[in-house]
Amino acid sequence: MAELPADKKFFENLSGAGKAIGVLTSGGDAQGMNAAVRAVVRMGIYVEAKVYFIYEGYQGMVDGGDNIVEVSWESVSSILQVGGTVIGSARCKEFRTREGRLKAAFNLIQRGITNLCVIGGANLFREEWSGLLEELAQSGKIEEEAVKKYVYLNIVGMVGSIDNDFCGTDMTIGTDSALHRIIEVVDAIMTTAQSHQRTFVLEVMGRHCGYLALVSALACGADWVFIPEYPPEEGWEDQMCVKLSENRARKKRLNIIIVAEGAIDSHNKPITSEKVKDLVVQQLGFDTRVTILGHVQRGGTPSAFDRILASRMGVEAVLALLEATPDTPACVVSLSGNQAVRLPLMECVQMTQEVQKAMDERKFCEAVRLRGRYDTSNHTHLSTNFNVAVLNVGAPAAGMNAAVRSAVRVGITEGHNMFAVIDGFEGFANGQIKEISWGDVGGWTGQGGSLLGTKRTLPAKYLEKIADQMRTNNINALMVIGGFEAYESCLQLAEARARFEEFCIPICVLPATISNNVPGTDLSIGADTALNAIVETCDRIKQSASGTKRRVFIIETMGGYCGYLANMGGLAAGADAAYIFEEKFDIRELQVVVNVVFNWPDSIVVGLFLSCYRNENSNENYTTDFIYQLYSEEGKGVFDCRKNVLGHMQQGGAPSPFDRNFGTKVSAKAVQWISKKLRETYRRGKVFANTEDSVCLLGMRRRNLIFQPVVELKDQADFVHRIPKEQWWLKLRPLMKILAKYKTSYDVSDSGQLEHVARHSPKEAETGAI
């Protein structure tokens, strides 16, 4: 196995021996909680700590007895894909009293638990802890020795909330899954609404936070949205009805209005879904229906994003407990971009409370600022109309159409004439270019594939023809949406500027590929949808083996030489191994899985599922067929083996909410960048941009969207294997191995496997990032 870079830290001396960790869930349930519970249990056991379930939240802590149970590795098998929380959640009035907390402290001390992973809050309990122990000792319920031994209580929080209403984190556990439920309903409603020319008013959760409403509105292309933090201006009723009428006049056969349950007007009066429906019926006479989604949003299987997020947070929570000192304040594990970080719990709680206070005082701009997630930037209308062309290059990826729609509509808003290029650069060379209007992209957000058509052809062989077409159509700027081919295409255009003046215009690349293999970005449009397709398929494969005692599945994912889908799919689906090109493996690696199956405990009667992911180019000799034949031969009489090649189903289907939203946001930002460059380079009636920073790739780096010259990214790309030279997700490889479904005593020195948690570089480690 390949050595990891020297700047990684491994916790070889990190030990939880002698420590006990309790895990509980509190408040409303959220999809992904079980993934967090599973990660806490397995990471805790991995570092040799005792781990306890605390059933029914704080109520179980107060009641004690069978509500606090030590668990094993197998206790959390097969819960990764289950919604809700298997250990239960309950609100507890008694815990709010000192007497209740005294009972809870006694029950924890009986089991030596002084470390809590809480999906909920418990800071007061921590502050009172020493006083509670002294009171228990004075009443004779515990010994003085116990007071000294268990003098400190460490608490780490993880936020499970579908509303995404907690300040300090980009996403809370359950939010992405809730968006999936909403979009599934919207997509289903849109077909019946179009049939009957109806208006649908959807009410989604969000009593104090409008995140679900706002993002789902972006993801489905809703006509209007109401959220608590952003009340509409006076006269909104007439404005909305005019908007709906205009859309119908453009031959749009349906209208979608999304209302957060806590939506209010500028006078703090509720805007209900029924009120909106009555308004539309009375003023426009449209056939209008109301759908209240309710607890449907909390239910169902967690998305791939939530499984990965919760797993990372659970592992980080255990590490935070092990590293805690008496002076360490209670912390909450949060997400910043693609990094899991630790933040002071009470600071985040205070900021969250300040949001509500600002809303109560009608300081809505302040509430939006504190939320920090809503982009309220204004578009600037240009005095000069420029011609901006949009095209797709490479393999199709879900979310491409959302990006094109956003580019067209934002471009028109900013005063540009927007042109669509059909079938990539090959179509460009053949003159397949047409002006595209606002209405032409209606309904594109939820469409999979590429409605413009896309091909892998690079422009190098058509440079002269493309230059002619750009001159003929007076193209002033270019947006290229696609994968590694899109990046390479724009690099070729940049390098051809000396020969063709027509290419001296602003050019922007938006990474869109399921493989997530483009240099300069951590995430690409389409990768999230592909991950969800992999995870959903794996869940079904597991169900197909119900009643089988021992079975191994070999699942091949796409990705070329990039192991992103294999690795992250394996983490999200609970695989035991993920074989990828970036990390070399040999026959000893394959032996690990065989040994695990042979040593599977007799207590497990059914449901052994070993999902061994490999991406299509991980090894030229250890192919899917080879691994399948090897396991089939070795497992005779003990287990049987099945293989599944997922193929192009990973490229198909409707885009996930994440990819719809991501494509919409990055495309809007790219158009704004193009507008800025056009203003800077417009000289004497023409555009002339010949600097490196006028041909850029817009990538997501951690939590920031950054424009990077394509020429500067050459050194970061492996053009032979079509992957970035450094990939952030490789740092998550140890997590999948630690959280593997079956713990074995296999000697890591023999296998060469890494079995210690890899941390980021020292600079990142300062923030507790993993």
UniProtKB/TrEMBL annotation:
Record domain Phosphofructokinase: where: 21-320, 387-674
InterPro entries in the cross-refs: 6-Pfructokinase_euk (IPR009161), ATP_PFK (IPR022953), PFK_vert-type (IPR041914), Phosphofructokinase_CS (IPR015912), Phosphofructokinase_dom (IPR000023), PKF_sf (IPR035966)
Record carries keyword Cell cycle: no
Chain residue ranges for the region called N-terminal catalytic PFK domain 1: 1-385
Residue sites binding ATP per the record: G28, R91, C92
Pfam family, one: PFK
Any GO BP: canonical glycolysis
Entries under PANTHER family matching the protein: ATP-DEPENDENT 6-PHOSPHOFRUCTOKINASE, PLATELET TYPE, PHOSPHOFRUCTOKINASE
Protein's UniProt name: ATP-dependent 6-phosphofructokinase
